[in-house]
Design brief:
There is one protein chain. This protein is α+β, with helices and mostly antiparallel strands. It has a single domain, classed as 3-Layer(aba) Sandwich (Bit1). The chain contains nine helices and nine strands. The strands form two sheets. Strands 1, 2, 3, 4 and 5 form a five-stranded mixed beta sheet that branches. The protein has a four-stranded mixed beta sheet with strand order 7-6-9-8, with helices on both faces. About 40% of the residues are buried.
Length: about 250
């Protein structure tokens, strides 16, 4: 979604933001596992010159929030029912990897793509895991990872999504977790703050915290100056694990 889309409809943006600000439901999972609702995140991982891991994670966060505030999830939009059902349940995301023609095909499935420093991620409209589009269902969930990189000090003024240093998460798991964190963060912002963030394309910095930073960040959460993702423990990490802490401005960390 372009910045012009947001600028042209500020009132609608406020309505969509309110839907995130109210929080998410904790409805019980359906009896049929195929009916569980999830957002699919497609990570573009070409063989030649793959992107930086941190850039992919930043793109995952941006794509997630951009879809959540897209005008098509609004009350009169074609994605409204699917989005409302998803946010009424446990928030789940499934990350898949794609390259070449498979990445091009993913671009034809309803969703929003974000790009950060050449890294691309497409967030797709949530739906039942048993009804995933065939162009997405064939994409691998696990497998390819990226080496950890050192992107340096985050740019001042950007929201920062700090990853728990004690957890060894795969790229796909980390992408889902920073997407969760970005959703929680934008919901905690005022409409004006969320609007300002939208004008940058929801840019953020994703960084791995040091042990000492993580202690300080947890204190920020306790004081209400940051938001934390606590994982349900379905994959990779123990239930209740704090995976990512999102700080709205580096000056608070």
């Amino acid at each position: 979604m372009s910045e012009q889309d947001f600028v042209s409809e500020p009132a609608g943006f406020a309505v969509r933001h309110a839907a995130l600000a109210r929080g998410y439901g904790l409805a019980e999972d359906p009896a049929d596992p195929a009916a569980v609702l999830a957002m699919q995140l497609v990570l573009h991982l070409p063989k030649q010159e793959p992107p930086r891991r941190s850039a992919i994670l930043e793109a995952a966060a941006a794509a997630t929030v951009a879809l959540c505030l897209d005008e098509r999830v609004g009350p009169d939009g074609p994605w409204f029912d699917a989005f409302e059902a998803w946010t009424a349940a446990r928030i789940r995301k499934i990350a898949r990897r794609a390259r070449g023609a498979h990445w091009q095909a993913a671009g034809e499935v309803p969703g929003v793509t974000a790009e950060v420093d050449g890294a691309q991620v497409r967030a797709l409209v949530p739906g039942p895991v048993g009804e995933v589009d065939s162009r997405i269902k064939r994409l691998q969930i696990g497998g390819t990872d990226l080496e950890h990189d050192d992107p340096g000090q985050p740019e001042r003024g950007l929201p920062v999504l700090w990853i728990n240093p004690t957890l060894e998460m795969t790229l796909g798991k980390a992408a889902a977790q920073v997407g969760h964190a970005a959703m929680l963060l934008v919901g905690a912002l005022t409409v004006a703050q969320a609007w300002d963030w939208a004008q940058s394309g929801f840019r953020s910095a994703v960084r791995g915290a040091s042990a000492n930073q993580w202690i300080a960040l947890q204190q920020l959460v306790g004081r209400g100056h940051a938001v934390a993702v606590r994982d349900a423990g379905f994959t990779e990490v123990a239930p209740g694990s704090m995976t990512v802490i999102a700080v709205p401005d580096l000056g608070l960390a």
